């Protein structure tokens, strides 16, 4: 997969461009440029480490949206054995923005759901950029019903800018579908782990993330509204998105302090897109660990603990 660079990564892009030119020159002219290449590669490593050590919320937002970041389909392909996809909501149609099915996560039978954004233009159009319609959330409810009936833990992989805001979606009851899906998450009597793998936007993300344990990748974001939308509302201009990102507390680090999420999963230096396989492997292990912690609880305990978890959010420091 070809590497693409974010705006703040321009110094890295310049150095890696020089490395490619030196390799091409050395191969074409038979010149030994290994020493110079090694020196530049060291500079690249130092630059990446320095940049990613001090990312601000807006930069993290850009990393969370990086086109090369692993998507839901990548995690399912690598981590879920015997995956059997389930389609349709039995009411209207199939929604490709949400993947759903049954399989084995490191040997344990689970139900898996997640937002899929797509890897290329055709895929993004097919999956509607990960923005689900009502039928997607109703499909999720159907799969969660199956999981509860057969005692299967639920794993969700969240990566969406938000639910689709189109007229058709509103006509078919978008808000009602999101509300019922969120309620279904709260009522599940099975272990439930959610991972914010990229962008967790608004109710469209919450509908799949009202879980017993919420994990966020280090450079993912989770927010009530996108920084651009927030800036447009407050300052009448999306150009203030960087200020909005800071005010919204979208980062995993802020959200853990606020008690919204339970665990931050460290990404490889330079972000998940620079070492996709390690990121996927780390997510697989983390989810398995959290499921194991929940395994001994009965349905009533799981429901009560999950409900209390969300009731307690925002109460810290109150008299």
Q: Which class best fits the helix and strand makeup?
A: alpha/beta
Instruction: State the low-pLDDT regions, or none.
Output: none
Query: In CATH, what is the homologous superfamily of the largest domain?
Result: 2-enoyl-CoA Hydratase, Chain A, domain 1
CATH class label of the largest domain:
Alpha Beta
SSE order: HHHHEEEHHEHHEHEEHHHEHH
Instruction: Examine the coordinates and then state which fold CATH places here, giving the name of the CATH topology of the largest domain.
Output: 2-enoyl-CoA Hydratase, Chain A, domain 1
**Cα-atom Rg, whole angstroms?**
21 Å
Question: What portion of residues belong to β-strands?
Answer: 15-25%
Helix content: 40-55%
Number of domains as seen in the coordinates: 2
Indicate the CATH architecture of the largest domain. Alpha-Beta Complex
For the record, give the distance between the C-alpha atoms at the N and C termini, rounded to a whole number.
53 Å
Give descriptors for this structure.
single chain; 319 residues; alpha/beta; 2-enoyl-CoA Hydratase, Chain A, domain 1; eight-stranded mixed beta sheet; 14 helices; 50% helix
What is the gist of this entry?
It is built from 14 helices and eight strands. 50% of the residues lie in helices and 16% in strands.
Which secondary structure elements does this structure contain, and how are they paired or packed?
Elements lengths: L9 H20 L4 H20 L3 H8 L7 H8 E6 L12 E8 L2 E8 L5 H6 L7 H16 L4 E7 L6 H5 L2 H14 L4 E10 H8 L3 E5 L3 E3 L3 H9 L5 H8 L3 H6 L5 E3 L10 H19 L4 H14 L7
Parallel strand pairs: 3-4, 4-5, 5-6, 5-7, 6-8
Antiparallel strand pairs: 1-2, 2-3
């Amino acid at each position: 997969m070809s590497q693409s660079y974010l705006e703040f990564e321009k110094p890295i892009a310049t150095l890696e461009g020089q490395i490619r030119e030196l390799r091409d020159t050395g191969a074409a002219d038979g010149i030994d440029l290994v020493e110079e290449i090694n020196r530049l590669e060291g500079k690249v490593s130092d630059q990446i480490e320095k940049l990613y050590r001090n990312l601000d919320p807006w930069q993290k937002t850009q990393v969370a949206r990086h086109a090369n970041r692993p998507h839901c389909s990548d995690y399912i392909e690598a981590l879920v054995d015997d995956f059997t996809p389930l389609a349709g909501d039995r009411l209207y149609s199939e929604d490709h923005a949400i993947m759903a099915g049954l399989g084995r996560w490191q040997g344990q039978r689970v139900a898996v759901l997640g937002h899929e954004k797509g890897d290329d233009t055709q895929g993004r159009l097919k999956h509607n950029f990960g923005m689900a319609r009502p039928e997607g959330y109703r499909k999720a409810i159907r799969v969660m019903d199956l999981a509860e009936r057969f005692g299967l833990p639920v794993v969700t992989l969240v990566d969406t800018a938000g639910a689709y805001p189109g007229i058709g979606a509103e006509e078919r009851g978008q808000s009602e579908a999101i509300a019922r899906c969120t309620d279904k998450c709260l009522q599940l009597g099975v272990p439930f782990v959610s991972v914010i793998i990229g962008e967790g936007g608004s109710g469209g993300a919450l509908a799949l993330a009202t879980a017993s344990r919420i994990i966020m990748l280090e450079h993912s974001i989770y927010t009530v509204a996108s920084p651009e939308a927030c800036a447009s509302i407050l300052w009448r201009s999306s150009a203030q998105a960087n200020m909005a990102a800071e005010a919204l507390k979208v980062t995993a680090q802020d959200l853990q302090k606020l008690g919204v999420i339970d665990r931050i999963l460290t990404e490889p230096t330079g972000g998940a897109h620079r070492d996709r396989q390690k990121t996927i492997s780390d997510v697989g292990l983390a989810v398995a660990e959290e499921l194991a912690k929940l395994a001994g609880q009965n349905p009533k305990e799981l429901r009560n603990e999950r409900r209390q978890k969300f009731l307690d959010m925002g109460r810290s420091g109150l008299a």
